[in-house]
Structures
1.
Amino acid sequence: MQPTVRLQRERFDAAAEAAALRRGRTDVGAVVTFTGICRGDENGKPITALTLEHYPGMAEAEIERHVAEASQRWPLLGVTVIHRYGRIEPGEDIVLVATASSHREAAFAAADFLMDFLKTRAPFWKQVEQAGDRNWVEAKQSDDAAAERWRKPKIGDAAE
């Protein structure tokens, strides 16, 4: 399996990317996709745009590392992760995670794992523009709590 990881300013076609994962294959029984979209409001206030910045080189390497981990945890036949950066307006796609497997359980779990990673550990920074005001978005404890479920216990950790 050769995963696809792309960071880009340009828009992407989520349906075409998902179709590419199964094109010409009969071993794929499930493709799960998640597309994150820029909302038009944040905490009840209209959003003009989001600006996403990343650490070039490091961001791709970190995403590839987590794709490799997902591939070790679940029997995946294909993975595509596309994350945009730059200025993104409401209604535009921000991120795509697509996973392919013979069975749905693995495809769902891997997509969920990868999104939790992207929300909490990938080197991206988000700035929200509202009515001419710009603010950097802080990490959310709820996102960290969701990602914690994927942590593998280390030797010496108490059994749960």
Note: The chain has one domain: 4-136.
2.
Amino acid sequence: MGQVENERLLEQTGAVKEMIQTCIQCGTCTASCPNNEFMDITPRRMWRLLLTDHVEALFSSKSFIMCSSCYYCTLRCPRGLELTQAMSLLKQAASRLKLKQFKRSSLFYDAFLDSVQKHGRVKEMEFMTHYFISLKNPVIPFGYASLGLKLLAKGKIRPEFGSGAKGKLAGLFKKVAELEA
């Protein structure tokens, strides 16, 4: 990454760095994390990279995207740090920066929220269709076809589009957009 890109990353992560400034590197967050085994760097290492301004290494990793917001790290942190919120802010920064390595997860998140905003809940078929179209690669959905058929057969997803609680959450989404602006 170049100097300009690194400065953009530092700017986007300033609030997170401030949140975790008092981290004592005890490793409780890593030990608590149920997704730790799927991460390429541990939560403890992520905080150290951030505290030492090595954000390019942090954003080269996809570890913070693996956070499932279970709050175990936040609940167990001996310093009382809002680590789950910090992970969320890192996800938001990656989305705002439109970093190539996070494009798929950003598109997934956008498609998910679009479905919730329209219907008050997730309409799985519409959501996944929207997501796969946004990927602009017609081959990718075929890799998920067998899973989709199994979920349909077990009644875990419904083959429906549209309908539902149209617009009931529009006010909520509008208010969030105002608060984020």
Note: The two ends are 28 Å apart (CA to CA).
3.
Amino acid sequence: MQEIRFHGRGGQGTVLASISLAKAFFEAGWEVQTFPLFGVERRGAPVEAYLRIAHEKIYLRSGVYTPDHIVVMDAKLIGAIDVTRGLKPGGWILVNSAVQPHIDVTAGDFRLAWVDATSVAVAHRLGTRTHPIINTAVLGAFARTFGMPDLAHIETAIRQEVPVKKEENVAAAHAAYDQVHFLRGEEA
């Protein structure tokens, strides 16, 4: 079983990203479990969402305290909260950032990837310039970073889950897939 924790802000599509990714993994033949954790339910407030994937039935029904991987939808959260708390050694951290994020990967033997999902979303007119909706771009970057699920499964999940601009969202996932940067050139 693998556990993935998403960190984002209300209004970015963090919860929809975890649900869409769960559907993509399910279509690819995985067992899945996803759920959000809300603090203050308002736009811009920190949000966490969790995803478990496994090849066997998932019986665990608790929070995710030691994730295998982390997805950070807003790089500004890195200074505000400990996004790496509990992250297992060797785990990936995927960050929405235009530049290499300031995370000490040696402290926990982490692997780091980043993508400018914000620019991708703006370029595809997803949300507004001031409030871009980055979730589908992050899904494409996730598929590239982790080597799974296949981008075709991401496309299907987007078409099923995203209520508007389906083709623009699919295009954003593809664009982000191609724009992922890896620290030290390591890919999954």
Note: Helices lie at 14-27, 77-80, 117-123, 135-146, 151-161, 166-178.
4.
Amino acid sequence: MDESVNIRELNDLIASKSGIVGMITQGMDQTIVGQKHLINSLLISLLANGHILLEGVPGLAKTLAIKTLASLVDAKYSRIQFTPDLLPADVVGTMVYSAKQEKFEVKQGPVFANFVLADEINRAPAKVQSALLEAMQERQVTIGETTFKLDEPFLVLATQNPIEQEGTYPLPEAQVDRFLMKVIIGYPNKEEEKLIIRQNIKSEKKSVQPVISTRDIIETRKVVEKIYIDEKIERYIVDIVFASRFPKDYGLNELSGIISFGASPRASISLAIASRAYAFLKGRGYVIPEDVRAVCHDVMRHRIGLSYEAEANNIAADEVISGILDKVAVP
């Protein structure tokens, strides 16, 4: 009984904070046509304090969506265009000699921001990725002998193009695992495309103004952290992740030759965190199995390794995840 009272209080608390979601969604709708899944995914990553990787062909408003989100929050935003000749110092900064002070001073790079857009992240070599990795995982940057804490909130919002593979580098598995979600962006439908044309041939462009502060985000995250996850839901999350590692134990014999490695424990953590954020978007103080299923593909598709057999048969990670969700018992 006590627990239900807490849930009721939590629902009221969520209702009081849900205005933030409404304001961001309204602001995003001014510049982005359709792409509801993209907008929801960006909101989940914002509320769950997790980095996000957007994959899609050029022209699907990936960069625009990230830029719009950053503009709606009164925060520091920076964009890094990843190229093969990019250096770690171009991302994190470097030591610069000051003739006036007669000593070396730290010149901070663009990673010192609240929102960092890593555009075409797979175009830069491993050294750059390792520099970004420290910022993503530790929320800090080391330049010379000094370590700097990054301001909260700190989000890396990365994009990559799945088609053009020339001049690209596959991202290290360790770094890909640091992204809370990898979201695949699809084409708009015909009606949305007509609206896109109308919006873009107008001479005046809508300017986006900040509607919330970084403090609002930090306070809302505290509410998201209070969302209740029952033990049955925890067991469900663990079963989904374990089914990707030991498919035969779950009657998924057909997947054993397709999966080369299963999802890491970070997948379990990310599923729980993203499910909470999704429950918040739905105005609920507790997580239900549908919340887990709603975020499962985005959280796990980049954490499952596929074998050569899977690639030869054009089997994607999404099909594997759907097979797991169909088989694992729902609480």
Note: Residues 152 and 312 are 44 Å apart (CA to CA).
